[in-house]
Amino acid sequence: MSRRKPAAPRIGLALAGGGPLGAIYEIGALCALEESLAGIRFTECHSYVGVSAGGFIAAGLANGMTPRELCASFIENVGAADDIFEPSVLIRPAWREFAQRLATLPALSAHAALRYAFTRRSLSGAFERLARALPTGLFSNEMIHTRLSRQFTAPGRSNDFRRLKRKLVLVATDLDSGEPAPFGQPGFDHVPISKAVQASAAMPGLFPPVEIDGRFYVDGALKKTLHASVLLDEGLDLLICLNPLVPFDSTQSMQHRVMSHGDERIPRLIDGGLPVVLSQTFRTLIHSRLEIGMKGYEHSHPGTTIVLFEPDHRDPEMFLANTFSYSQRRRGAEHAYQQTRRLLRAKRSALGRQLAPHGVTILDDVLDDGRRRLLSPAAPTRRHAGQALRRLEEVLDELDQTLAGWNLAQPR
Questions:
Q1: Which candidate, 71, 32, 65, 75, places its Cα nearest to that of 240?
Q2: What is the pLDDT of residues 191-241, one digit of tens each?
Q3: Are 167 and 50 in contact (CB under 8 A)?
Q4: Which pTM was predicted?
Q5: How far apart are CA 228 and CA 248, in angstroms?
Q6: Nearest alpha-carbon partner for 321 in 335, 310, 339, 309
Q7: What is the C-alpha separation between 390 and 380, in angstroms, rounded?
Q8: For residue range 303-358, what is the model confidence (pLDDT) as tens digits?
Q9: CA-based R_g, the chain, Å
Protein backbone atom coordinates (compact mmCIF):
# COMPACT_ATOMS: atom_id res chain seq x y z
CA MET A 1 0.00 0.00 0.00
CA SER A 2 1.56 3.30 -1.10
CA ARG A 3 1.61 6.23 1.23
CA ARG A 4 -0.09 9.38 0.13
CA LYS A 5 2.36 12.23 -0.34
CA PRO A 6 1.55 15.07 2.08
CA ALA A 7 0.32 18.27 0.48
CA ALA A 8 2.91 21.02 0.17
CA PRO A 9 2.42 23.83 2.69
CA ARG A 10 0.53 26.85 1.37
CA ILE A 11 2.93 29.74 1.94
CA GLY A 12 1.97 33.34 1.21
CA LEU A 13 3.97 36.55 1.11
CA ALA A 14 2.62 39.99 2.12
CA LEU A 15 4.70 43.08 1.36
CA ALA A 16 3.88 46.53 2.74
CA GLY A 17 4.78 49.81 1.07
CA GLY A 18 7.34 52.47 1.78
CA GLY A 19 8.47 54.13 -1.45
CA PRO A 20 11.96 53.49 -2.87
CA LEU A 21 13.28 53.02 0.67
CA GLY A 22 10.72 50.29 1.28
CA ALA A 23 11.70 48.50 -1.92
CA ILE A 24 15.37 48.67 -0.94
CA TYR A 25 14.69 47.15 2.47
CA GLU A 26 12.43 44.41 1.13
CA ILE A 27 14.91 43.37 -1.57
CA GLY A 28 17.79 43.13 0.91
CA ALA A 29 15.67 41.29 3.48
CA LEU A 30 14.24 38.84 0.93
CA CYS A 31 17.73 38.00 -0.32
CA ALA A 32 18.83 37.22 3.23
CA LEU A 33 15.73 35.14 3.98
CA GLU A 34 15.85 33.09 0.81
CA GLU A 35 19.47 32.03 1.22
CA SER A 36 19.09 31.36 4.97
CA LEU A 37 15.84 29.35 4.88
CA ALA A 38 15.47 25.90 3.32
CA GLY A 39 12.03 24.90 2.08
CA ILE A 40 10.93 28.21 0.61
CA ARG A 41 11.51 29.97 -2.68
CA PHE A 42 9.98 33.42 -2.99
CA THR A 43 9.25 32.91 -6.68
CA GLU A 44 7.21 29.81 -5.82
CA CYS A 45 4.90 31.02 -3.06
CA HIS A 46 1.25 30.00 -3.17
CA SER A 47 0.15 33.65 -3.32
CA TYR A 48 1.31 37.24 -2.97
CA VAL A 49 -0.20 40.52 -1.86
CA GLY A 50 1.61 43.83 -2.27
CA VAL A 51 0.88 47.44 -1.43
CA SER A 52 2.65 50.41 -3.02
CA ALA A 53 6.39 49.61 -3.22
CA GLY A 54 5.57 46.14 -1.92
CA GLY A 55 3.39 45.68 -4.98
CA PHE A 56 6.38 46.43 -7.20
CA ILE A 57 8.38 43.67 -5.48
CA ALA A 58 5.47 41.20 -5.31
CA ALA A 59 4.75 41.61 -9.03
CA GLY A 60 8.37 40.83 -9.87
CA LEU A 61 8.45 37.72 -7.65
CA ALA A 62 5.15 36.43 -9.05
CA ASN A 63 6.68 36.82 -12.51
CA GLY A 64 9.59 34.59 -11.57
CA MET A 65 12.18 37.26 -10.81
CA THR A 66 14.26 36.10 -7.85
CA PRO A 67 15.21 38.49 -5.03
CA ARG A 68 18.75 38.56 -6.41
CA GLU A 69 17.44 39.49 -9.87
CA LEU A 70 15.34 42.26 -8.34
CA CYS A 71 18.47 43.47 -6.58
CA ALA A 72 20.34 43.62 -9.88
CA SER A 73 17.46 45.51 -11.49
CA PHE A 74 16.59 48.06 -8.80
CA ILE A 75 19.73 48.35 -6.69
CA GLU A 76 22.64 47.79 -9.08
CA ASN A 77 20.91 48.68 -12.36
CA VAL A 78 22.55 45.85 -14.28
CA GLY A 79 21.21 43.04 -16.45
CA ALA A 80 18.85 43.10 -19.41
CA ALA A 81 17.97 46.61 -20.55
CA ASP A 82 14.23 46.09 -19.95
CA ASP A 83 14.87 44.87 -16.40
CA ILE A 84 16.76 47.95 -15.21
CA PHE A 85 14.58 50.23 -13.08
CA GLU A 86 16.11 53.52 -11.95
CA PRO A 87 14.33 55.20 -8.99
CA SER A 88 15.08 58.55 -10.66
CA VAL A 89 12.16 57.95 -13.05
CA LEU A 90 9.90 58.63 -10.07
CA ILE A 91 10.94 62.28 -9.75
CA ARG A 92 9.92 63.55 -13.17
CA PRO A 93 7.55 66.52 -12.87
CA ALA A 94 3.91 65.82 -13.69
CA TRP A 95 3.84 68.27 -16.60
CA ARG A 96 0.55 66.97 -17.99
CA GLU A 97 -1.17 67.39 -14.64
CA PHE A 98 0.27 70.89 -14.26
CA ALA A 99 -0.96 71.89 -17.73
CA GLN A 100 -4.45 70.47 -17.22
CA ARG A 101 -4.89 72.25 -13.91
CA LEU A 102 -3.44 75.50 -15.22
CA ALA A 103 -5.93 75.43 -18.10
CA THR A 104 -8.80 75.53 -15.61
CA LEU A 105 -7.48 78.61 -13.81
CA PRO A 106 -9.10 81.33 -16.01
CA ALA A 107 -12.58 79.84 -15.71
CA LEU A 108 -12.19 79.22 -12.00
CA SER A 109 -10.93 82.77 -11.44
CA ALA A 110 -13.86 84.28 -13.34
CA HIS A 111 -16.38 82.12 -11.49
CA ALA A 112 -14.85 82.94 -8.12
CA ALA A 113 -14.84 86.69 -8.91
CA LEU A 114 -18.49 86.68 -10.04
CA ARG A 115 -19.57 84.62 -7.06
CA TYR A 116 -17.88 87.02 -4.68
CA ALA A 117 -19.20 90.09 -6.48
CA PHE A 118 -22.85 89.00 -6.39
CA THR A 119 -23.05 87.09 -3.13
CA ARG A 120 -20.51 89.07 -1.11
CA ARG A 121 -19.52 85.96 0.74
CA SER A 122 -16.13 85.60 2.35
CA LEU A 123 -13.06 86.15 0.24
CA SER A 124 -11.64 82.90 1.61
CA GLY A 125 -14.47 81.03 -0.11
CA ALA A 126 -13.37 82.46 -3.46
CA PHE A 127 -9.80 81.34 -2.84
CA GLU A 128 -11.04 77.85 -1.92
CA ARG A 129 -12.56 77.57 -5.39
CA LEU A 130 -9.24 78.58 -6.93
CA ALA A 131 -7.59 75.73 -5.02
CA ARG A 132 -9.13 73.37 -7.56
CA ALA A 133 -6.43 74.51 -9.97
CA LEU A 134 -3.71 73.05 -7.75
CA PRO A 135 -2.13 69.85 -9.16
CA THR A 136 -3.06 66.59 -7.46
CA GLY A 137 0.53 65.39 -7.61
CA LEU A 138 3.99 66.83 -8.10
CA PHE A 139 5.62 63.95 -9.97
CA SER A 140 4.51 61.74 -12.82
CA ASN A 141 4.15 58.03 -12.10
CA GLU A 142 3.40 57.03 -15.69
CA MET A 143 6.91 55.61 -16.11
CA ILE A 144 6.11 52.94 -13.51
CA HIS A 145 3.50 51.52 -15.87
CA THR A 146 5.72 52.00 -18.94
CA ARG A 147 8.85 50.37 -17.50
CA LEU A 148 7.06 47.46 -15.81
CA SER A 149 4.95 46.80 -18.88
CA ARG A 150 8.17 46.20 -20.85
CA GLN A 151 9.63 44.12 -18.04
CA PHE A 152 6.61 41.88 -17.58
CA THR A 153 6.07 41.21 -21.29
CA ALA A 154 9.51 39.64 -21.67
CA PRO A 155 9.56 35.91 -22.53
CA GLY A 156 8.42 33.75 -19.61
CA ARG A 157 6.62 36.62 -17.85
CA SER A 158 3.18 38.16 -18.08
CA ASN A 159 1.57 41.52 -17.48
CA ASP A 160 -1.81 39.77 -17.09
CA PHE A 161 -2.91 38.61 -13.63
CA ARG A 162 -4.92 35.78 -15.20
CA ARG A 163 -1.88 34.26 -16.91
CA LEU A 164 0.37 34.08 -13.86
CA LYS A 165 1.14 30.70 -12.32
CA ARG A 166 0.76 32.17 -8.82
CA LYS A 167 -1.97 34.31 -7.29
CA LEU A 168 -1.04 37.98 -7.10
CA VAL A 169 -3.08 40.77 -5.52
CA LEU A 170 -2.01 44.43 -5.67
CA VAL A 171 -4.12 46.74 -3.54
CA ALA A 172 -4.94 50.37 -4.32
CA THR A 173 -7.59 52.67 -2.84
CA ASP A 174 -10.61 53.94 -4.78
CA LEU A 175 -10.40 57.71 -4.38
CA ASP A 176 -14.16 58.34 -4.59
CA SER A 177 -15.31 55.58 -2.24
CA GLY A 178 -12.28 55.13 0.02
CA GLU A 179 -12.59 51.38 -0.42
CA PRO A 180 -9.70 49.04 -1.27
CA ALA A 181 -9.37 47.90 -4.87
CA PRO A 182 -7.76 44.41 -4.92
CA PHE A 183 -6.33 44.24 -8.43
CA GLY A 184 -5.86 40.59 -9.33
CA GLN A 185 -9.06 39.45 -7.65
CA PRO A 186 -12.09 38.56 -9.82
CA GLY A 187 -13.54 41.76 -11.28
CA PHE A 188 -10.17 43.49 -10.96
CA ASP A 189 -7.96 40.98 -12.77
CA HIS A 190 -8.36 42.45 -16.28
CA VAL A 191 -6.20 45.45 -15.38
CA PRO A 192 -2.53 45.14 -16.49
CA ILE A 193 -0.21 44.31 -13.59
CA SER A 194 1.99 47.31 -14.41
CA LYS A 195 -1.02 49.64 -14.20
CA ALA A 196 -2.08 48.11 -10.89
CA VAL A 197 1.41 48.71 -9.47
CA GLN A 198 1.22 52.33 -10.61
CA ALA A 199 -2.17 52.79 -8.93
CA SER A 200 -1.14 51.05 -5.70
CA ALA A 201 1.93 53.32 -5.41
CA ALA A 202 0.16 56.63 -6.21
CA MET A 203 0.80 58.40 -2.91
CA PRO A 204 -1.56 61.41 -2.68
CA GLY A 205 0.19 64.74 -3.11
CA LEU A 206 3.29 63.10 -4.53
CA PHE A 207 1.73 61.40 -7.56
CA PRO A 208 -1.59 62.11 -9.33
CA PRO A 209 -4.38 59.53 -8.90
CA VAL A 210 -4.34 56.85 -11.59
CA GLU A 211 -7.39 56.53 -13.83
CA ILE A 212 -8.55 52.98 -14.58
CA ASP A 213 -11.90 52.26 -16.26
CA GLY A 214 -13.17 55.75 -15.47
CA ARG A 215 -12.34 55.60 -11.75
CA PHE A 216 -9.36 57.07 -9.91
CA TYR A 217 -7.06 55.19 -7.57
CA VAL A 218 -4.40 56.15 -5.03
CA ASP A 219 -1.98 54.39 -2.69
CA GLY A 220 -3.32 51.16 -1.20
CA ALA A 221 -1.77 51.94 2.19
CA LEU A 222 -4.48 54.53 2.86
CA LYS A 223 -6.82 51.76 3.99
CA LYS A 224 -4.52 49.15 5.50
CA THR A 225 -0.79 48.62 5.81
CA LEU A 226 -0.58 45.00 4.61
CA HIS A 227 -4.01 43.88 3.34
CA ALA A 228 -2.95 40.38 4.37
CA SER A 229 -6.54 39.20 4.82
CA VAL A 230 -6.95 38.73 1.05
CA LEU A 231 -4.47 35.84 1.34
CA LEU A 232 -5.35 34.63 4.83
CA ASP A 233 -8.94 34.02 3.78
CA GLU A 234 -7.64 31.31 1.45
CA GLY A 235 -6.47 29.19 4.36
CA LEU A 236 -2.70 29.60 4.19
CA ASP A 237 -0.44 27.53 6.41
CA LEU A 238 2.29 30.16 6.67
CA LEU A 239 2.25 33.87 5.88
CA ILE A 240 5.52 35.79 5.78
CA CYS A 241 5.10 39.56 6.08
CA LEU A 242 7.61 42.34 5.45
CA ASN A 243 7.06 45.89 6.65
CA PRO A 244 9.88 48.33 5.81
CA LEU A 245 8.70 51.45 7.67
CA VAL A 246 8.93 51.63 11.45
CA PRO A 247 9.15 54.69 13.72
CA PHE A 248 12.71 55.40 14.80
CA ASP A 249 13.39 55.26 18.53
CA SER A 250 16.20 57.78 18.88
CA THR A 251 16.22 57.40 22.67
CA GLN A 252 17.37 53.79 22.31
CA SER A 253 19.56 54.12 19.23
CA MET A 254 21.74 51.06 18.70
CA GLN A 255 24.50 53.17 17.12
CA HIS A 256 26.55 55.56 19.20
CA ARG A 257 26.45 58.35 16.67
CA VAL A 258 24.13 61.10 15.65
CA MET A 259 22.23 60.87 12.40
CA SER A 260 23.33 62.50 9.20
CA HIS A 261 21.09 64.70 7.08
CA GLY A 262 22.97 66.05 4.09
CA ASP A 263 26.06 67.79 5.41
CA GLU A 264 24.64 68.44 8.86
CA ARG A 265 24.50 66.29 11.96
CA ILE A 266 21.13 65.77 13.62
CA PRO A 267 21.35 64.81 17.30
CA ARG A 268 17.52 64.99 17.71
CA LEU A 269 14.67 64.31 15.31
CA ILE A 270 13.24 67.79 15.70
CA ASP A 271 16.54 69.24 14.45
CA GLY A 272 15.88 67.57 11.10
CA GLY A 273 13.03 69.98 10.40
CA LEU A 274 9.67 69.33 8.80
CA PRO A 275 10.66 66.39 6.52
CA VAL A 276 12.02 64.36 9.45
CA VAL A 277 9.08 65.21 11.71
CA LEU A 278 6.58 64.24 8.99
CA SER A 279 8.46 61.01 8.27
CA GLN A 280 8.41 60.00 11.94
CA THR A 281 4.72 60.93 12.22
CA PHE A 282 3.78 58.94 9.11
CA ARG A 283 5.80 55.91 10.21
CA THR A 284 4.23 55.97 13.67
CA LEU A 285 0.69 56.16 12.30
CA ILE A 286 1.02 53.33 9.81
CA HIS A 287 2.93 51.13 12.25
CA SER A 288 0.33 51.49 15.00
CA ARG A 289 -2.28 50.45 12.44
CA LEU A 290 -0.10 47.49 11.46
CA GLU A 291 0.16 46.34 15.08
CA ILE A 292 -3.61 46.39 15.43
CA GLY A 293 -3.99 44.51 12.17
CA MET A 294 -1.49 41.81 13.13
CA LYS A 295 -3.33 41.15 16.41
CA GLY A 296 -6.58 40.93 14.48
CA TYR A 297 -5.09 38.43 12.03
CA GLU A 298 -3.94 36.20 14.88
CA HIS A 299 -7.49 36.01 16.24
CA SER A 300 -9.34 35.77 12.91
CA HIS A 301 -6.98 33.19 11.35
CA PRO A 302 -5.56 31.08 14.23
CA GLY A 303 -4.72 28.24 11.84
CA THR A 304 -2.11 30.29 9.97
CA THR A 305 1.38 30.93 11.27
CA ILE A 306 2.18 34.60 10.67
CA VAL A 307 5.79 35.82 10.79
CA LEU A 308 6.64 39.51 10.48
CA PHE A 309 10.03 40.90 9.49
CA GLU A 310 10.81 44.61 9.79
CA PRO A 311 13.76 46.92 10.60
CA ASP A 312 14.97 47.44 14.15
CA HIS A 313 13.26 50.50 15.66
CA ARG A 314 16.59 51.55 17.20
CA ASP A 315 18.53 51.54 13.93
CA PRO A 316 18.85 54.95 12.21
CA GLU A 317 20.76 53.68 9.17
CA MET A 318 17.92 53.95 6.64
CA PHE A 319 15.80 56.62 8.32
CA LEU A 320 17.36 59.51 6.38
CA ALA A 321 18.78 57.60 3.42
CA ASN A 322 18.81 59.31 0.03
CA THR A 323 17.23 56.50 -2.00
CA PHE A 324 17.89 58.25 -5.31
CA SER A 325 21.65 58.01 -4.76
CA TYR A 326 23.21 54.92 -6.31
CA SER A 327 25.69 54.40 -3.48
CA GLN A 328 23.00 54.96 -0.85
CA ARG A 329 20.79 52.33 -2.47
CA ARG A 330 23.64 49.83 -2.40
CA ARG A 331 24.46 50.63 1.20
CA GLY A 332 20.80 50.47 2.25
CA ALA A 333 20.22 47.10 0.59
CA GLU A 334 23.40 45.66 2.11
CA HIS A 335 22.35 46.99 5.51
CA ALA A 336 18.88 45.42 5.22
CA TYR A 337 20.47 42.13 4.18
CA GLN A 338 22.89 42.06 7.11
CA GLN A 339 20.31 43.28 9.61
CA THR A 340 17.90 40.52 8.57
CA ARG A 341 20.67 37.96 9.04
CA ARG A 342 21.30 39.36 12.53
CA LEU A 343 17.59 39.12 13.32
CA LEU A 344 17.49 35.49 12.18
CA ARG A 345 20.46 34.66 14.39
CA ALA A 346 18.98 36.46 17.40
CA LYS A 347 15.61 34.74 17.07
CA ARG A 348 16.84 31.47 15.63
CA SER A 349 15.18 29.16 18.17
CA ALA A 350 11.77 30.85 18.23
CA LEU A 351 11.63 31.27 14.46
CA GLY A 352 12.75 27.69 13.95
CA ARG A 353 9.83 26.42 16.02
CA GLN A 354 7.40 28.58 14.03
CA LEU A 355 8.70 27.59 10.62
CA ALA A 356 9.48 23.88 11.11
CA PRO A 357 5.85 22.63 10.98
CA HIS A 358 5.63 24.09 7.45
CA GLY A 359 8.76 22.40 6.12
CA VAL A 360 10.95 25.49 6.45
CA THR A 361 14.24 25.22 8.33
CA ILE A 362 17.03 27.63 9.12
CA LEU A 363 20.38 26.89 7.47
CA ASP A 364 22.80 27.40 10.35
CA ASP A 365 25.95 27.13 8.24
CA VAL A 366 24.72 29.87 5.90
CA LEU A 367 23.50 32.10 8.70
CA ASP A 368 26.72 31.80 10.69
CA ASP A 369 28.97 32.54 7.72
CA GLY A 370 30.22 36.04 8.52
CA ARG A 371 31.77 36.47 5.07
CA ARG A 372 28.46 36.60 3.23
CA ARG A 373 27.46 39.84 1.54
CA LEU A 374 24.61 40.89 -0.68
CA LEU A 375 26.78 43.06 -2.92
CA SER A 376 30.44 43.10 -3.81
CA PRO A 377 32.40 45.89 -2.06
CA ALA A 378 33.17 47.52 -5.39
CA ALA A 379 30.36 48.49 -7.73
CA PRO A 380 30.23 46.23 -10.80
CA THR A 381 31.12 47.70 -14.16
CA ARG A 382 28.11 49.16 -16.00
CA ARG A 383 27.94 49.89 -19.67
CA HIS A 384 25.60 52.85 -19.65
CA ALA A 385 26.59 56.50 -19.32
CA GLY A 386 27.17 57.94 -15.89
CA GLN A 387 29.36 55.11 -14.55
CA ALA A 388 32.25 57.38 -13.57
CA LEU A 389 29.98 59.91 -11.86
CA ARG A 390 28.23 57.23 -9.84
CA ARG A 391 31.50 55.68 -8.77
CA LEU A 392 32.77 59.11 -7.72
CA GLU A 393 29.55 59.69 -5.78
CA GLU A 394 30.04 56.37 -3.97
CA VAL A 395 33.62 57.21 -3.00
CA LEU A 396 32.62 60.65 -1.73
CA ASP A 397 29.75 59.17 0.32
CA GLU A 398 32.10 56.65 1.90
CA LEU A 399 34.67 59.36 2.62
CA ASP A 400 31.98 61.49 4.25
CA GLN A 401 30.97 58.60 6.52
CA THR A 402 34.61 57.95 7.47
CA LEU A 403 35.31 61.59 8.31
CA ALA A 404 32.07 61.87 10.28
CA GLY A 405 33.02 58.86 12.37
CA TRP A 406 36.54 60.24 12.94
CA ASN A 407 35.16 63.63 14.06
CA LEU A 408 32.79 62.03 16.54
CA ALA A 409 35.63 60.00 18.01
CA GLN A 410 37.73 63.11 18.81
CA PRO A 411 37.68 64.36 22.42
CA ARG A 412 35.57 67.44 23.01
A1: 32
A2: 999 999 999 999 988 999 999 999 999 999 988 889 999 999 989 999 999
A3: no
A4: 0.82
A5: 24
A6: 335
A7: 11
A8: 999 999 999 988 887 776 666 666 788 999 999 999 999 999 999 999 999 999 99
A9: 23
